[in-house]
Every structure is written in structure tokens, then in C-alpha cells.
Amino acid sequence: MTSSVRTRCRLAFASSFSLVAALSASSVRAQVAPGPQPAQVETARVPGTEAAAPLLEAQMNALIGRPGGLTSDQAAARARATSYAVGARRADYEAAQATVDQANAAYVPRIKGTASYQRTSPVELAFAGYVFNYPVNNWNLQVDVDVPLSDYVLKIAKQHASAEHSAKAAQLTGRAAELTASSDARIQYYAWTRARLQELVANDALEQAHAHLNDAKSEYSAGKASQADVMGVEAEVAQNELLVVRAKNAVALEEDRLRTALHDASTHPYEIGEPLLDDVAPMPGENDFNSLLNEAVNQRPELQSMFETARGQRAQATASRFDAVPKLDAIGTARYADPNPLYFPPSPVWHGSWGVGGALTWSDVDVLLGLTNGSASEARARSTEAEAQQLKDGLRDEVMSAWQGVHEAVVAIESTKRSLAAAEESYRVRRALFRADRATSTELSDSENALTRARFDAVNARIDLRIAGVRLAHATGRDDVPGTRGTPSN
Length: 490
Known about the structure:
Radius of gyration: 39 Å
Order of helices and strands: HHHHHEEEEHHHHHEEHH
Strand order of the largest sheet: 1-4-5-6
CATH class of the largest domain: Mainly Alpha
Helix content: 55-70%
Distance between the termini: 25 Å
Number of domains: 2
Mean pLDDT: 84
CATH topology of the largest domain: Outer membrane efflux proteins (OEP)
Shape: elongated
Structural class: alpha+beta
Number of strands: 6
Oligomer: single chain
């Protein structure tokens, strides 16, 4: 952000209920679902948490929802377009598609053309008392055609099917790479926005500590506090200064990671274009875990790619086994030669000839190679299918983790709102008591620290909900379905 925006983001808190008002300005997601439920808590509203906080709202609005700012959708689209992993998978698909073209070429009869010249030593041929001189200059133009009849019926179709399955698998793998790049970019975007909001909280905590220090110095000047009290608050200020430095470093780190994910070499500062405090739309059907799991099994391209790979390997196994079967080929030859060996007596004259026929061939080596290659392809298919089943187990864990993360984040938002309301009120009361000489500086410091933690927790709960939504959408294969990525509902 620019320095002017940073300045606006550091406006002092004017109300003890400020952050809770900003974070409770919008409703939370749908209640926790039935089924294999995570724990639920009561969320009765704490009186007074609806108080207006215009200064903090201005603080937050200066940081988020910026016109022309970066959104998670934009980050996902750019990451997908620039991902090296996606580029590699696209190249893999092009290579697999070339293999399909090679399989198509196997349907074309093998046509071989030959043009040759040969000069031989003089040869005399004796026949029935006649002596013939064989021409020393030999010219030959010849076309041979081989039609693999048995391969057409038994082998080529299986090889073509294998290539198509492999190409489909490569396409699905590329699709998986695109969705992973998009999902990772969204999560990194929210990690960056979390750091920005935490920086805001850290700056507010430092200003709060400075206010406490001013009060402590006034109390010390009036003889109502000791030098130790002042020094204790100075230590608190120093800790918060370190907190601000760490928060700034976290912003720089997460922004650099985001630029790396987007392959953005520019130095233009990012601004948050997404209204992070708006409602987060629930994912349709997110309450039914079993339905979400079935959707993941049916939709995730990684799993579908493995099944396609196994189908291709089985088709290749069948094609390889047909090498053990005798091959029937139709053959044909057309020749125009000087001299043509079919003409007698040989003379230096161009003559044309043709011939058609068939050949049945068998080789013991082909039998051995066909059977062993078929067994190897079949074993690879079983291995791939086993890996696919292992992936299904992993998908169940991934969906469960993301599903629980969404529901926990929903509860966390309500929980942190209540905790924040209590922390705000405790701080307000402690500060009033401190100024009235009815509370110690240590008690006030404790309430300040509790308030800072509550503010961090409130920010984290909001971001955690969006990240959990991204992960659940990715786990179920809904990355590109509108309204299922934790995007604002407006």
C-alpha cells in the first residue's frame, strides 16, 4: 500500500466496541450441519456489541474493498495462466495427442516406394544353345503395398484406444494442475490479506500501548504510580514495536509469495480489492459430508486421470498379446524396370509388371515379447488402479478436513465476536479504573494484551472461513462453480 493508505489504516480506535462492530456488521454463514458434526456452541449476542464504530470502519474500509484492487478471482486467473506446472501439463497433453495421431497413422496401408540404379559386371547367360548378355545398367522403379489385415482387426484398434485414454488422462492431469494453481493462488491471496489486517491490528496495539504509557507517566508524575510501573509499560511498548515490525515483515513475505505465484515482476503495490468483511455465501450442499465426498470422487480430475491411465494400460496389454497371434498381411507390388526380371530374355528395355498376394507370418520371439509386454502393461494397470484407490482414501481425508474447517471457522467467527466484545469491555473498564486509581498498570496491560489477541483472533476467523471455503471447493472439484469458493455473497 501507499504511505497515505498506511496512514489512514493507523487511525486510533475511538470506541471500545470498535472492532466487534466492524466484524459483526455482516451475518455469518449458515449454521453447522447435521451428520458427522463438529462441535457446536451457543452464540447468544452480548449486549452492546452492535455499537457503531465509524472510525474503525473507516480504518478497515481504507484497507479492503479498494476499487481496482486485487481480488482472489483475479489472483486465481493469473496464477492459472502463468503457472509453469500448468504449462508442463499442457505440453504433456500435446505429446499424448501426438501419440493418438501416431495410432491413427497405423490404419494407413504401408506403401513403400523405391527408385534404384545399379551397374553390374558383364554377365553372359546361356540358354538352349543361345548366349545372352545381361544388361550392365539396371534401373528400377517399384511400389510395394502391405495391408496388415489381422492387425486391423485385432491390434490397431486397441492401440488407438490406449492412446486416446492416455491423451484423456493427460488432459485431466492438466486440468488438475490448473485447479491446483488457482486454489493455491486464492489461499496465498488470503494469507496476504490476513497479514495486512494483522498489521493493522499490530499498529493499533502499539498506539494503545503508547496511550497506556502516557497515562502511566501522568500517574507517576502525580505520585500515584512507581517507576517500575512506567518501565513495565515501556516494556509493553517495546514488545508491540517488535510486533509491528514482525507484522510488516509478514506482509512483505506474503506479498512476495503472492507475486511469485502470479509471476508478477512489477513493483506496483497490491491493494485489497475484495470486501473481506462481507457475508460469505455457504456452499450449496455443504452440510452433507457424504454427498460432498461422492462429488469429490466423481469430479476430481486427478482421480479421473488415473482411471483413464489404467484403461489405456489395459488396452495396451490386449494389443501386446495379439503379437503372439500369426499375422496375415495382404501385399502388392508394382514395378517398372530396365531390365525387368520378369521378362526373358533380359534386355535393356523398360517393362512394367505387378503382383498381389498374401503372407501369413509367425515368430517365436513375437510370441514371447507379446505375452511379456502384455503382462507388464496389465501389471501397470493394476498398480495405477491401486494408486487411484489410495487417492480416494486421501480425498476422503481432504474433504473431511476442509469440511470441518468450514464449520469450525463459522463457529470461530461467532466465538471471536463474543470474546472480542468481552475484551473490549474489559479494556474499557480497566482503563477507567486505572485512571480512577482503582486498577493497577499490570491489570491494564493484561486487558490490553487480551484485547490484542481477541482482535487477531477475530481477523483470523474471517480469513480462515474464506480459506476453508477455497479448500472445500477444491476438495470437491467445484473450483470453477460460482458461489462455492467463499466469495462475497453480494
